[in-house]
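Quarterly update from the structural biology core.
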Amino acid sequence: MITFKQNQISEISQKLNDSQVIALPTDTVYGLAGKYNDEKAIAEIYKIKNREHNKPLPILVGSWEQAKLVGIISEDLQKFLTINFEEGKVTVIVAKQPMLKTSYWSTKSSVAIRVSASSFIKKLTNILGPLVATSCNISNELPITDYKLINLPKLKYKVMGKILDNKPSTIYDSFTGKIIR
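Predicted structure, tokenized:
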């Protein structure tokens, strides 16, 4: 497995542009990430993780403006979330934008989005746009919080770094106005 440092942003971006999946530090755990509209990378995430296909992938973004590219977020909802939650501490479920038309997204009516507080994730998403990202582990196993512990046989790339906080983000369902987790 090839290990990158966070300052190798152009090399990491190139791998993600080439439909590769990379394990990287997020706000809460190490995540398996790919470009949000890359069918090959999305399929690879499911394969690496042994994830059930009925479990959708969340999206990481660097700002609320970017979040609005993939999800329908009203000014009132954005204001509510920014007042009540710090960046990186909430994942919001909203209706997806109609422009998400790849075969993966065409079967979904909603999307889970987290605005990351990580400067590394912000840099990546500023270059590449939104990323799909799910915890870096085999499904139903404990999430990984240290890059040295990553041992997924089908994974080729990881980024050395530290997560910001190992507490799971709150999940807020904008359809019901309720906190799921």
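The first strand starts at residue 2 and ends at 5.
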